[in-house]
Design brief:
elongated, about 300 residues, about 50% helix, 10 strands, 3-stranded antiparallel beta sheet, 5-stranded antiparallel beta sheet
Length: about 300
């Protein structure tokens, strides 16, 4: 099975990314086998020279599991390995790889313990207790290996993150310039919009003046810039309700569970150690962007059309 997966990768061209993937999986599996050789679980201390043969077989199983997990990620989950999708994509993909590979390699090891090692060592029969024991060991090793690779590639991820942020800021400025330079902006963007809550209170504003909307308990704070000043109004409503009322305006995007933001009023996108913030014009306030909403911000910058 491992040979078949390797052939698939070779058939794709064996570019740098694929070679690095093979190298990472090989080193990670070797680290796992080294740890097993040191701590000798599963009764490996009994077999003497047979233990080395078992370790070699476990290495093959571990490597096969890695490549099978890569195939599942690429063709089933539809997440090919790529550095072009940004740091958040890489981190998400690595996490999904571990979630797939850890139970898979644990199952393969349990099957090997049952069909091969149980002849020499009692207690290696296939059972839930043995599977959970193996899963705990492999999960701990996977966590340690993941920390190692994250530390090793930290500088690369940082450089990618900085470049990604630079490109996002360029796209942000271009989008805002296109809006300003439009000679006859769409009348919907100049019309007064009335935001209402569950009470009789309401706020009237022009969409380009809106800065952000923040959920504060049972209320939302509406921040807008008009007449050279920043105004804030409180409405008894939810951010979900505000998001629904403003869904006709693609520049109003949810960036966080508690925030809706107007991308036309963002001064700069700031990225720091995997987190993202939006610094607003006129206030210099920094609005957080949750990891789950990063892709929404990126897609909005690419797809917003002021027509």
């Amino acid at each position: 099975m491992a040979v078949w997966q390797i052939c698939i990768i070779f058939a794709d061209g064996m570019n740098k990314s694929h070679k690095e993937t093979i190298s990472i999986r090989f080193i990670s599996t070797a680290f796992m086998i080294l740890a097993i050789a040191i701590f000798k679980p599963f009764g490996l201390e009994v077999g003497q020279w047979q233990s080395y043969l078992h370790l070699l077989c476990l290495f093959v199983l571990g490597l096969s599991s890695c490549f099978l997990s890569e195939v599942i990620l690429r063709y089933v989950v539809r997440m090919p390995r790529s550095y072009d999708h940004g740091v958040s994509y890489i981190i998400s993909r690595n996490l999904r790889f571990q979630l797939i590979n850890t139970p898979l390699v644990s199952l393969l090891i349990c099957l090997y313990r049952h069909f091969v090692m149980s002849r020499q060592v009692e207690g290696n029969q296939l059972s839930w207790s043995n599977y959970l024991e193996t899963l705990a060991i492999i999960a701990f090793l996977s966590f340690a290996i993941g920390l190692y690779w994250r530390f090793k590639f930290r500088s690369r991820y940082l450089a990618m993150e900085l470049e990604e942020t630079r490109l996002l800021n360029e796209q942000l400025k271009k989008t805002q310039e296109d809006l300003v330079e439009r000679d006859t902006p769409h009348e919907a963007h100049q019309a007064q919009v009335q935001l209402t809550g569950t009470t009789n209170d309401s706020v009237s504003l022009v969409i380009p003046d809106l800065l952000y909307i923040e959920a504060v308990g049972n209320y939302v704070k509406v921040a807008r810039y008009a007449g050279g000043e920043v105004h804030t109004d409180m409405l008894r409503a939810t951010s979900k309700q505000m998001e629904h009322d403003l869904q006709a305006y693609p520049m109003i995007v949810r960036c966080h569970r508690a925030f809706l933001v107007n991308l036309g009023q963002v001064d700069q996108i700031i990225s720091n150690a995997g987190s993202m913030q939006l610094r607003m014009k006129h206030t210099n306030e920094c609005i957080p962007v949750s990891r789950s909403n990063m892709s929404q911000i990126k897609d909005a910058l690419k797809n917003i059309s002021f027509q």
